[in-house]
Design a protein that fits this description.
Elements: E1 2-6, H1 13-24, E2 27-30, H2 31-41, H3 44-53, H4 61-71, E3 81-84, H5 90-99, E4 104-109, H6 112-120, E5 122-124, E6 130-132, H7 156-170, H8 172-179, E7 183-187, H9 192-203
Parallel strand pairs: 1-3, 1-4, 2-3, 4-7
Antiparallel strand pairs: 5-6
The structure holds adenosine-5'-diphosphate and zinc ion.
Residues 125, 127, 129, 141, 143-144, 146 line the site of zinc ion.
């Protein structure tokens, strides 16, 4: 099974991706996570990408297409994979079409005001978990005990840019995949577990 998760920043792609990848035994490919790992390791690619990410801009298409092209050829993707945060532009979607065929695109649809609240209260852990300050009061991860942090690009000004970039560059992908009969939209305003139930209804037979 080859999937794409589409949705604005804060739509819950990461949370759903973790659950889907576990339930269906497919690899989770997050271009955002891959870029942040490069930044953390101080690679050339990381240094290059950081200047874009910190401003809330998209990293150039060639860079992320390169990451994905590499990754989907790896052994752990033989059973399928789920793309989280890619493609984000029509050019990326066209590049992906040349690499492989996608089965389904799940569009997680969330209201704008909900998104802003989610991102500003979001706290992350190195292990991949994320929490929201409204429901989680501790500053260490419940899963692994590490200290939680706020993503550098989760500040108000950068979030504004990211939402703007989403509306201009990524939202057109909804039509792109609808035209190709790949698109299914789920209501992402609900809780993580409720959204996951809806996702499973979509993917049910695909296992
Ligand atoms: P979010 O979906 O919450 O914005 P991500 O972790 O997916 O978070 O992405 C964070 C940042 O990484 C983006 O704002 C962008 O700068 C960069 N990035 C991630 N994926 C891509 C991509 N496919 N194309 C271009 N830039 C990307
Ligand atoms: Zn953790």
């Amino acid at each position: 099974m080859k999937l794409i998760l589409l949705g604005a920043p804060g739509a819950g792609k990461g949370s759903q991706a973790t659950k889907i990848s576990k339930e269906y035994g497919i690899a989770h490919i997050s271009t955002g996570d891959a870029l942040r790992a490069n930044i953390k390791e101080g690679t050339e690619l990381g240094k290059f990408a950081k200047s874009y990410i910190d401003k809330g801009q998209l990293v150039p298409d060639e860079v992320v297409v390169g990451i994905v092209a590499d990754r989907i050829g790896k052994e752990d993707c033989r059973n399928g994979f789920l793309l989280d945060g890619f493609p984000r532009t029509v050019a990326q979607a066209e590049a992906l079409e040349k690499l492989t065929d996608i089965d389904v695109v799940i569009n997680i649809d969330v209201d704008f005001d909900v998104i802003t609240g989610r991102i500003s209260g979001r706290r992350m852990c190195e292990c991949g978990e994320s929490y929201h300050i409204s429901t989680y009061k501790s500053d260490v991860c419940a899963k692994c005990g590490k200290k939680l942090y706020q993503r550098a690009d989760d500040n108000e000004e950068t979030v504004k840019n990211r939402l703007d970039v989403y509306a201009r560059q990524t939202a057109p992908l909804i039509d792109f995949y609808a035209t190709r009969n790949k698109l299914v939209t789920v209501d992402g305003n609900k809780s993580i577990d409720e959204v996951f139930e809806d996702v499973k209804k979509v993917l049910g037979g695909n296992r």
